[in-house]
Design brief:
Elements (H helix, E strand, L loop, with lengths): L1 E4 L2 H13 L6 H23 L12 E6 L4 E6 L6 H9 L3 H10 L4 H5 L16 E9 L6 E6 L4 E7 L5 E8 L9 H11 L7 E3 L4 E6 L4 E8 L4 E2 L6 E7 L5 E6 L7 E4 L4
Parallel strand pairs: 2-8
Antiparallel strand pairs: 1-6, 2-3, 3-7, 4-5, 4-7, 5-6, 8-11, 9-10, 9-14, 10-12, 12-13
Helix pairs in contact: 1-4
Length: about 270
C-alpha cells in the first residue's frame, strides 16, 4: 500500500469543480462513461496493431449498477485498464498547461463550464461532486496484476494490490448523503439517454425488481410479469420476458417481447 499526494493543480481543480459546477452534477456519469468508451477504443485499436493485444477488445461493454444499502454506484468497462504506474499518471497528475487552460476558460456558467471538462481531460474528477470516496479497481490488458486506487478527494490517494479476473476498470462511487437521488434506475437511465446515446459500445444497466399487471393492445393474454435484477443494454431496456398464453392456442410458451411491439400499461405494487 502506498499513499500519494495529489498534484497541487488537482487540489485546485477539485475545489473549483465541486463549487463551480455543483448545479450540474449529472455530468459525472457522462464523463465516466466517456472515459470507459475511450479505454475500449484504445484496446480495440491495439488489438489490430499490436500482437500483444491480439484477440482482446471483442467483449467491449459498459455496465452500471448500484446498491441502495451500501449507497454506491459502480461503472465498469472492458477497456485497456491500468496498472499502478498508469494510475499515478492518469488519476494523480494532469498536465499543468491543461489545468491552467481549463481554469482560465471557466465562465461561472455551470452549463457552459461542464462542457469544458471533457475537452481538458479532467472529467474523472467530476465524480467527487457526488462521491465522498472513489475506489478504482483496474487490471491492464496483457498483465496479471490488478490494483486499487482510492481517495476521498481531500488531498491524498492510495494505491494497493487488488484482484480482478479480467482486464478493464471498475469505478465505485461512495455517494454523499445529498447525492442519494442517483440510486435510482430512472435517474441513471435518464442521464445515459441524455448524454451518452452516442457511445459506440453497449451500455448495460441494472433493473429494478417489480411485479404487476399488464394491459396491452395485442390479442394475447399476459398472465404474469416479473422484472428481474439483470443487466441489459439501455437502448433495449424495455425488453421483457413474459409468460404468454395465446387466445388462439391451448398451449403456453415463454417468449420475449420488445416494448416497441406493444403498448404496455404497467402497475407496480410496493408490497410485492
Amino acid at each position: 500500500m502506498a499513499k500519494h499526494a495529489f498534484q497541487t493543480e488537482i487540489k485546485q481543480l477539485l475545489n473549483l469543480m465541486i463549487h463551480s459546477l455543483y448545479s450540474d452534477r449529472d455530468i459525472f456519469l457522462r464523463e465516466l462513461i466517456s472515459n470507459g468508451s475511450d479505454a475500449m477504443d484504445k484496446l480495440q485499436y491495439l488489438a489490430l496493431t499490436d500482437e500483444k493485444y491480439k484477440g482482446l477488445g471483442g467483449d467491449a461493454k459498459i455496465e452500471i449498477t448500484y446498491d441502495k444499502d451500501a449507497k454506491t454506484i459502480k461503472i465498469c468497462d472492458m477497456g485497456i485498464g491500468m496498472n499502478d504506474e498508469d494510475m499515478v499518471e492518469s488519476l494523480g497528475t494532469i498536465a499543468k498547461s491543461g489545468t491552467k487552460s481549463f481554469i482560465e476558460k471557466l465562465t461561472g456558467d455551470a452549463k457552459k463550464d461542464s462542457n469544458l471538462i471533457g475537452q481538458f481531460g479532467v472529467g474523472f474528477y467530476a465524480a467527487f461532486m457526488v462521491a465522498s470516496k472513489i475506489s478504482v479497481l483496474s487490471r491492464k490488458a496483457g498483465e496479471d496484476k490488478a490494483f486499487i486506487w482510492e481517495s476521498d478527494g481531500s488531498g491524498e490517494y492510495e494505491i494497493k494490490a487488488g484482484e480482478k479476473e479480467s482486464h478493464g476498470t471498475e469505478i465505485t462511487l461512495h455517494l454523499k448523503e445529498d447525492a442519494e437521488e442517483y440510486l435510482s434506475q430512472w435517474k441513471l437511465e435518464s442521464i445515459v439517454k441524455k448524454y451518452s446515446d452516442h457511445i459506440p459500445f453497449p451500455i448495460f444497466m441494472q433493473k429494478e425488481k417489480y411485479r404487476g399487471a399488464v394491459l396491452c393492445t395485442f390479442p394475447i393474454f399476459l398472465s404474469f410479469l416479473t422484472f428481474s435484477n439483470y443487466s441489459e443494454p439501455h437502448l433495449d431496456s424495455a425488453a421483457m420476458h413474459l409468460d404468454v398464453a395465446s387466445c388462439h392456442m391451448n398451449k403456453k410458451k415463454r417468449t420475449s417481447i420488445h416494448a416497441s411491439m406493444i403498448r404496455v400499461l404497467f402497475f407496480s405494487f410496493a408490497w410485492l
